[in-house]
Design goal:
single chain; mainly beta; Immunoglobulin-like; 2 domains; 8-stranded antiparallel barrel; 44% strand
Length: 289
């Protein structure tokens, strides 16, 4: 009986340690200094391999009640020679789910960093069914969540089979929005296409698409993230209308059509991809509270 109880206690302890290790595993952003730290997991143990400043680190350890402790070796290059020294890293939970980290290398002064796990970036367009107002144009709101974006572009795209905007590469309108902070950003379009003469957009159905150039942090090392984009449908002049064929070219003197200026089409944006939110460190949040 005692043996069975002992085995159950050992099994529960191992499961708890594994859960704790999972809480801290993943990519962490270094606030202030920038850069990523990636904490891996081997069973119930945690590992940190890679670079910390000018050091190559290979540390291994276990979770604690409010963080984790790692130990191992760090290597730096001195006068062309690789020098290995013992090191210890202590990470403790701080407010907001962050980690206060201290790296001690031999008898050197400790290095201190603050690691955070920013929310995954997200992008949305509002409203879901915008309208082109006769006097006010198109008004949409680009909503950025999670963390800032380094840049974004908004496009109004004609249908693939709409020959009226073939001379524009199907891109009726586009604008670079520049860096976007977390929050709501209103965007207005007067409803004028990007042809040389700037004509009013023709009746039909269009896609309004916003896509991020990149978020300010970028994906963690070794991880790929799908393109961040969102789109809504814009009906101009009512429901989806039959396309009227190629748009006639403007005419110049003596009734001759003026040669159309060649416009390099802006790159098309793929339909929005689902962005999975980054995992939330459960133990870190509990310890912060």
């Amino acid at each position: 009986m005692r043996l069975a109880v002992g085995l159950i206690v050992i099994a529960c302890s191992a499961a708890g340690a594994a859960r704790a290790a999972e809480d801290w595993r993943g990519a962490w952003w270094v606030e202030g200094a920038g850069g990523w730290r990636h904490v891996g997991r081997e069973g119930a143990a945690l590992v940190l391999d890679g670079r910390v400043g000018d050091l190559e680190v290979a540390l291994r350890g276990a979770p604690t009640a409010d963080g984790f402790d790692l130990a191992g070796l760090v290597v730096r290059v001195v006068d062309g020679e690789r020098e290995a020294r013992p090191a210890r890293l202590e990470a403790r939970a701080a407010r907001g789910g962050a980690l206060e980290v201290v790296l001690r290398v031999g008898d050197e002064a400790p290095r201190r960093e603050r690691w955070a796990r920013p929310a995954a970036p997200a992008l949305a367009l509002e409203p879901a069914a915008p309208r082109l107002e006769p006097d006010g144009g198109l008004h949409v709101v680009v909503r950025v969540e999670g963390r800032p974006l380094a840049g974004a572009r908004l496009q109004v795209l004609a249908a693939d089979d709409d020959g009226r905007y073939a001379h524009l590469g199907g891109v009726v309108h586009h604008v670079d929005l520049g860096p976007l902070a977390v929050g709501r950003h209103p965007v207005t379009w007067a409803g004028i296409d990007r042809s040389p003469d700037g004509a009013p957009v023709l009746p039909g159905r269009y896609r309004v698409v916003v896509a991020a150039a990149d978020d300010l942090l970028g994906p963690p090392p070794g991880e790929e993230r799908p393109a961040l984009a969102a789109e809504v449908t814009l009906d101009v002049g009512g429901p989806d209308l039959a396309h009227a064929g190629p748009r006639p070219a403007p005419r110049g003197g003596r009734g001759r059509p003026e040669p159309a200026a060649r416009i390099e089409p802006a790159p098309r944006i793929a339909p929005a991809a689902r962005v999975e939110p980054a995992p939330t460190p459960g133990l870190a949040a509990r310890a912060a509270r």
